[in-house]
């Protein structure tokens, strides 16, 4: 009989994760190989968007300017508030994602992500959501993150949080560097449900025994695919759907946070990398000059 590991989470005055320590739990029954949990990242596992904080980390390392970052933040806030989720926006997002990764070394992106996670993302992990994930692990289930962000970023976050792994947007790699082409589409909306269904087939999961967690109505296809859907820090549309379907609702925000959008969220992850792309090009021009 296996023993599970518990992550004890400490939080600051605003409810963010300040740190955690692993301890042994009592033995658990044999794991259920057919059950698993899938967690969205942005505003579900983490306050704000992981790719936004990655961009902030790049800005602090002078890859691009604060003005570039501020311009992106406004554009994405406007995108979220207006709910402009249509084919044209996704096309722009995909092109931006392609431009961002072209020529970058995979190991460099992973190294930067590890540094930036520790500096900027870890303090913004929602302690309550992290504890939900730990409950699944303690029950012998596997836990995956599912995000529109590049899969390399998702994998770093999953590893840092002690989770099983991550599903994310995949960029083509040749000789250790990104080619500028995506493998498939952005991991967004219906693509998340399709990816989880494919993973379930490979891993022998029974989706009716699985759970999914998200803050956004964009993830309704994913939430509808599993047997247990949980709305975490839900937007208005998802909250209405959760009540209609009698899904569980968890809100780890304070009243003040629930009433406003503090930082951008990646309804389309490519919008942030578009700002990163512009910043990197500017930085290269400055160095060339």
UniProtKB/TrEMBL annotation:
InterPro entries: HAD-like_SerB, HAD-like_sf, HAD_hydro_SerB1, HAD_sf. Pfam families: HAD. Keywords: Hydrolase, Membrane, Transmembrane, Transmembrane helix. It comes from the Bacteria. The chain crosses the membrane at residues 261-282. Coiled coil: none annotated. The keyword Glycoprotein does not apply. GO terms for molecular function: hydrolase activity. The keyword Iron does not apply. Belongs to the HAD-like hydrolase superfamily. SerB family. This is HAD-IB family hydrolase. It comes from Micromonospora tarensis.
